[in-house]
Amino acid sequence: MKKSRFRKLKRIVSLILVISILFITSCGEAVDQTDNTEAESESEGILVGMSFDSFLIERWQRDCDIFVSKIKEIDEDVEVNIQNANGDIATQRSQLKYLIDKKVDVLVIVAIDSNELSDIVAEAKDKGIPVVAYDRLINNANVDLYISFDNTMVGKLMGEALVESELPNKKVLMLSGPTEDSNVSMVEAGFKSVMESNDIEIADCYHAAGWKAEESSKYINEHLNSLGDIDAIMCGNDNIATTIIRTLSEARLAGKIKIVGQDADLEACQRIVEGTQVMTVYKPVEKLARAAADFAIQLAKNKEVSGVKDTISDGTYDVPYYYIDPIAVNKYNMDSTVISSGFHMRDEVYMNVPDEE
């Protein structure tokens, strides 16, 4: 009787051990399968890497949000890795290397310095990663696509607005962005062509390092005694324009010198309807960011871009160039441009003009 019970107990213990082993083995197989499934998913899914100069300029956050939204609209499974270099080229280079090591399927770059990333682009392309230069051209790099606005036209629109506003002394200042930004030279070329054709003197041209508006403000403070016969100031963007107008106000020169800028920042649009800024150049970033997202997915899948007819020289290569036309915005067309597009709300733009109907 005791032996029978012992045998029965022995069989039960053995059965429990077998079940335990099978259970442990099956869990191990399940974990392995999950890992493999995740690895396959990661390898099959698209990973987009995007590097921004910084979010110091108002528009960049908007570009980023629209770009990511459009990517998710195309395919919600696409992963987007956003890097912000905070205006430091060494940081941007490091972040780009990180994205290359992550084996992104396409790399989208808002370059801090157009002359310092050709080797990084070469490294990406050597590893089969197509590269999009977003808004700013990367020189001597042979990127797969340069997508931006017509920056020469941006400068022309600024110049034409000043000519139309009348310049009695025919003397202007240019307070541009850094020369490392390839767009700056394009904008300046457009602006200078209008000044030259209208016999207007450019008294001086200053470049603010890193797009730091305070640098331009410092320049104005140091040259207050030379502003007596200056009719207008072309500001490289609306952030610089904001700082310059404040500086001029402190020197009791506000309203005496005409100001133009670009980017259609909210404060600039408010000043335009108030009458303290002549115009801004509206660049519909929603169109740019959405188009860039379409091209990024196209490049990630096909490793080449189609539907782009124009090219532009990056100094060494002619690269595919897709551009969008900018729009001059003044107090007369504010409602039909910036506001009708939803870029800014009407109540926000006219908040300081309560009697506007």
Description:
The protein has helices spanning 2-44, 58-74, 89-101, 118-126, 151-165, 182-197, 213-222, 238-250, 266-274, 285-302, 335-339, 346-349, and strands at 47-52, 79-84, 106-109, 131-134, 145-149, 171-176, 201-207, 232-235, 258-262, 279-282, 310-313, 318-324, 327-329. It is of the alpha/beta class. Helix 5 (151-165) runs parallel beside helix 6 (182-197) and helix 7 runs parallel beside helix 8. The termini are far apart.
Quick rundown:
This protein is α/β, with parallel strands linked by helices and 357 residues long. It has helices spanning 2-44, 58-74, 89-101, 118-126, 151-165, 182-197, 213-222, 238-250, 266-274, 285-302, 335-339, 346-349; strands spanning 47-52, 79-84, 106-109, 131-134, 145-149, 171-176, 201-207, 232-235, 258-262, 279-282, 310-313, 318-324, 327-329.
Low-confidence runs: 1-43
Helix amount, in percent?
A: 40-55%
Assembly state of the chains shown: single chain
Class inferred from helices and paired strands? alpha/beta
The value of Rg in angstroms is 28 Å
Total E-strand runs: 13
Give the terminus-to-terminus CA distance.
105 Å
The topology string of helices and strands comes to HEHEHEHEEHEHEHEHEHEHEEEHH
Indicate the overall shape: globular
Mean pLDDT: 88
What composes the largest sheet? Answer: 7 strands, mixed
Which strand-content bin applies to the residues? 15-25%
Strand line-up across the major sheet: 2-1-3-4-5-12-11
